[in-house]
Design brief:
Blueprint lengths: L33 H21 L1 H28 L8 H31 L5 H6 L6 H21 L7 H11 L1 H15 L6 H25 L4
Helix pairs in contact: 1-2, 1-3, 2-3, 2-7, 2-8, 3-5, 5-7
């Protein structure tokens, strides 16, 4: 008696893979909301008033050193920002750490910068309008300090709103505006060395070290930092 032949069922067709979601741009933190903006403005007001409210020896110390701390911290922020593209030297985790330190140093530098401005305005060494607008004090070096402050604040704001520039359409404007920190750093260095009382030797050495390190990092970035691995 003939055996029934087994029927072979066809293998089910593989399920079609869902297409990967389109990536609109690199991952960035979202733009600050109304609460964050309000809190930031309150912090700015407190920093501007910190020096005048301190008084006495603390105010005198901040009058001498707040500008130095600001320029050193901002120099460190510029160097760390340059280091974030050193793909052939730093691992992704190290580059991420450099980015976090870059932001922290930038915030600290602008914080000391606001204290520096508040102390100078309180001591009537510069008018409040001149500190904001610049080019009215009659002293070119002081006006350069105001210009440097404006450029650093611009770089800080574009950094905080980086999420707005997270698409290819806006990446070039972001790089131009955020890159104002380079010009601000150079102008601030001239202001720090020439304005006010003559700086101490260790301050000049610190500025020179920051300047040399920043120029070296910028040269490395332009020559090797953007090469593919």
């Amino acid at each position: 008696m003939a055996q029934p032949t087994a029927t072979r069922t066809a293998d089910p067709a593989p399920a079609a893979q869902a297409p990967a979601p389109a990536r609109p741009g690199p991952p960035h933190t979202p733009a600050p909301g109304a609460a964050a903006v309000t809190g930031g403005l309150l912090v700015v007001a407190l920093l501007l008033c910190a020096g005048p409210l301190a008084g006495g020896a603390v105010q005198e110390f901040l009058d001498r050193m707040a500008g130095v701390f600001a320029l050193v911290a901002l120099s460190g922020s510029v160097m760390l920002g340059l280091a974030t593209v050193f793909r052939d030297v730093l691992t992704p985790a190290q580059r991420q750490l450099a980015q976090l330190l870059h932001r922290a140093a930038g915030l600290a530098g602008v914080g000391f910068l606001l204290v520096h401005i508040g102390v100078k305005v309180a001591g009537e060494k510069i008018g409040a309008a001149d500190a904001v607008l610049g080019w009215g004090s009659g002293d070119l070096l002081v006006d350069l300090g105001t210009l440097a402050a404006q450029l650093f604040v611009l770089a800080l704001l574009t950094g905080l709103w980086r999420g707005v520039f997270a698409t290819r359409r806006w990446i070039r404007p972001f790089r131009v505006l955020h890159g104002a920190a380079y010009a601000g750093w150079a102008v601030g260095l001239v202001h720090g060395l020439g304005a006010g009382r003559p700086p101490a030797g260790w301050v000049v050495a610190c500025y020179a070290l920051c300047g040399a390190a920043t120029v070296a990092a910028l040269a490395y970035r332009l020559t090797r930092g953007r090469r593919p691995r």
